[in-house]
Every structure is written in C-alpha cells, then in structure tokens.
Amino acid sequence: MNTKPEYRVAKRAFSPSALANVVACSAFTLTLCSTSLAAADSARLEEVVVSGVADPRMGSLLTSTEIRTTSAEEQITLPLSIGSLADALPGVSLNGQGGLFQSYSMRGFSRWRIRTEISGVPILTDRRAGNSLSFLPPELIDSIQVNMGPASSLYGSGAMGGVMNVSLLNPTQTSLSVSASSMGNAREVSLKTPINASTSLLGSIREASNGKSGDGTPLNTSFEQSTFYVRNKSYVNDTEVSTEVLVSDGNDIGKSSALFPNTRVTHYPHDNHRLLNFRATTPNNWFLQTYAHQQDWASMTLRDSGLENTSDYSSMTIGGLLSRTLQSDQSTQRYGLDVTRRYGVDITETTAEPEAEIASRNVINDGTEWTAGLFWERSWYLNGLSLQGGFRADRAEAQVASIATRHSNINLQLKANWQLTSVWDLTIELGSAYRLPTLSELYFEGETPRGRLLGNNALQSEETVGAQLTLLYDVGDTAFEMTASANRVDRYIERILLSDSLESYRNLKSGDLWGIDGQIQRRNNNVEHILSWQWQHGESSTGETIADLPPPSIRYATSWRRSSYALGMDLRYRFSRNRSGPGELALASAAIFGVSAEWMINPEWTVKTSVTNGLNKTYRTSATFQAPFDMGRAINVKVDWRP
Q: Is the pTM of this model over 0.70?
C-alpha cells in the first residue's frame, strides 16, 4: 500500500443530438489542432507520469504536498467501490449510505462540494447523496488523485472541498483477471490489453448478490455491471491527440439503507453512462479538451404499504478546456478558459399504489446548468522559496423553465513553499471557493431511499475561505507529512429532517470547519509501514455540529514482499463520535482489520487472497440518518493471468 503524496513540479448509445454536439466539439478541436492551439498535457506538466490520463490542472505549478494518490494495486484488501478505494487516503472518508453508490467526503466537505472527474471530465449528477463514480470498477483504475482544499480558483463551482480525479489504466501487456468474494458472492472478470502501440482496451463484467453485516443484518448490495473502455493516442503534425470512450451499464443495483428490507426497499433498475473525451497537446504547450457525458438511470422504492415510487433521470454534459502553459527558469504560468454545460436534465417520478391508477409527473423538466470561467495562475521560483498566485473569474447558472439561480464570483489562491532544509518543506495556502446549489437542491420534490425530499428554491450559493499549512519531511526511505486546515463557510447548505419522512435543505448563516490529517511512511528493504490519521470538526455560528463530518480515525498498514511472495495487513481504528449534525446519528467506535497474501506462481500466474473486516465488526460507515451497517467479514480471491 502506498498512499504517499506525489510531489509535483512544473515541467445506451449517444442520442443523435448528443452525438452531433460531440462531433461538433471534435471538429472544433481538430481545427484548433491544425493551427497549433491546444494545451500542455499532464505528462508535460508533471515530473511523475502515470499511465492513465490525468487532469492537467491537477498537478500544481508549485512544488506541493496537497495531492495524494492511491490505486487498486496498492490496497491491502479487495476494494469493491471507488469510495472504499479512496478511503485509504488520509483526509478522505466514506459518506452517505453504503453499497455500490457509497460516496465520500474530503476534510469534512462532501456531496457536490467535491469536484469529481474522470481524466479531467467532470461527473455531474443529481443523486441526492452527491456525485459518485459507482459506474467505474476499481479493477480498471490506474490512480485516484485527490487535491484537497479550496480549488475553485481553477475549477469553478463545485470544488469547495477539492478535486478527485480518476485515471484509467493504459496497459502495456495483456492480462486477464478473475476475482470473487464470499460477501454477496461477488465476482468479476476483467480484461486489459494493448491492441497496438497507440490503442488499448479495458473491459469488466461483475455482479453480486445481497450481503450481510457482521451481526447478520441483510444488506441491499446486489448489482450487475459491465464496463468497456478504449483509449487511443496518436500524433498529428507533432500534436499529441488522445481519445477515450467509456461505456458502462448497470442493472438491478441495490441501494443499501437501514430501512431495508422491512420498511423500504430501493434499487436502481438501470444505471447507464456514455463518456467521450478528446484531448490535444501541441509542442508549444497549448492544450485543448472537449468531452461529453450522457447518463440515464432510474431508482425504484417499494414501501411496506405497497406504494412504489420510480424516478427516471437523464442528462447530457458537454464542455471543454483551453489553456496554455509558459515556462522559464524563474517562473511558470498557466491561463485558460473552462466551460461546462449540463442540459436536458429530466427527472420523472411515477407513483403506483395498490388498486389505484399509476400517477406520473415531471419533477424537473429540461433543466440546465452551466459554468464558465477564465483562470490564471503563476509561480515564481526563488532560492528556497516558491510563490504562487491564481484567480478565476466565474459565472454559473441553474435553470428550470423560467426560474433561474445565478452566481458570479472571483476566486483567489495564494501559496508559498519554503524549503527549510534539504529534507524539510513548509507550505502555506490560502484560497476562496464557492458552489451554486444543484437542480435537486433547488427544485426536486419526490421520493428517495431515505424518504421524501423537498427542494428549496430560495437557497443561496455557498462560499468559503480556507487556509492550509503542510509540513513535509522526506529522506527517501522515510517520509512524514501533516496538514492542518481551516475553512470559514458562509451560507453552507445542509440537508435537514423536517419530520420522520420529509427532508429538505437550508442555508446556515456561517460555519467553521477545521482539522488535521497526515501520515508517516517508512520503507526498509522489503517492508513498508504507513501510519496515517485524520481528525475533523465543524460548527455553525449557532454552535450546531455541521453534518457529514467523519469521526476521528487512525490507520496502520504494512506490507512485506520478497521474491514471489507478499503479505499485507491493514488495521484502522475509528473513534466514537457522539455529536452529530442534522439528520445524523451518533457513531460508535470500530476496529476494521484486513489481511492479504499474494503468490506469483510464475511470470504468467499470480494469486492474491485477502480478508475484509476480519474481526467481523458491526459498524456504520457514516453518521447519515438511516445509513446501513457495513459488510461483515469477507474472504476475497483474485487470479491474474498475463500470457
């Protein structure tokens, strides 16, 4: 397991109308490429290059420690979702309800306050629990990069708590993997292969039945999912051009909840995603990206009274990024234009009662969201000191019919990095950020897995000013990193419980979030040790606990590798938390233990076994009201063949 931060240095098919938009974007890209207008690819901006496609803005222009990375290969136990994979990073915690749709928080920021991306493509959705990458199997992930802290100076609305960017694998050799888990009889077959020097293909088919918690409580965690991904990289007149296509289909996905199975049963009959990403990089450091993401899903909730509610959702997101990076011995700067538009947002609710006619209504009809911003940042390199400044002038809007909510903002970012000695670094960062309320927060009215939800069209945009102080010690085989963060949030949007079966949203006048997280990493010959920790706290101006904050936790992971064998252990202790926010429960302490063993039989065959929740503890992953217990003990096996 290696969650050490990377230290960056400047160096269904598409509908006809949607496809037309994509073709138009691609044509525009090719035109710009022919005139050498595209921005520097992340590989040109980063000293450390991963095999996947990253967001070029993810690598800070300044030597920094706020970017943390992890991957499925580095985990001790088998991750079943993107949320459980990212949970290994200090500062990141599971949030919301469990199952495949498990979401996450970063330093107390959750839901739509985290910008979630795949290769720089923003994933925008109206799931009330927040954005989720549930349609991506962890087996296809190359890396997860997390940049915590106010990032709206580069990304605009929705990056108050930072950015999580996922890169998919770009295999250099063919491999076929088969994995299985005793919990819910989960199983998966995945293929990763380079078709030729410029094209690679990934595929995954997986499914699971319902599982059980440590005390035997049934969990609604079943799913079926198939994912296909192809990537091509080529050159046109010295311009690097890459194209990604992702197709993901999910069926009969259980939405886990404490109300299952006696009071309320929720599942998603389908969850389909289509993503196209086109990027171009020219020798003179222009970069251009255009993308499209179509999603179509439905949720169905059956209550003990026999009442059945179905919500059908569909939308299309298109956008692009045009930027340029300029470098010299004394400074580096980047500027650009970023535009994202989500349109055709339709949410239809159907109600079926015993011995009654089916009723249907449009909860949201042809809703639109868009954000556009001009950004600039520059770094100056002095003797032992680096300074960075950046800003973004932004405009965002959410609209349904003739009702619209708009917000204009200028966000700033300042950063300084001191190289105190050859092994000690200190970084201070100040930043501002904002978030426009989503369509669901403003206008949704209908049933959800947690109960009935009523939007609030009087909500105002959230704003925050944050500060971070990071201390780093690195001597190669030993690294220590700790970050203290504090954020002042105005008009913070909370989901509140109005009655036993009705929830809504409100703006807090103001609130404060602060915390400490970090890790110590030690490598010694064939052994690696990692000790990480996090503590977050938040209060409103009236003294109430802010919702979605994770309990304090400490984690120790170790791995030993020699020749063709490897052993691993992962032990996390989560402290109890008695204080809770609106619509939340108190959390008891829990010790979560996992072990693994790996054997490379020969260069072609590798077997890995692991045990998840080895102590078979019964605990909730978050304080969310009606959150279910996590899965009980599971034995996992993975066989990998590389011909």
A: yes
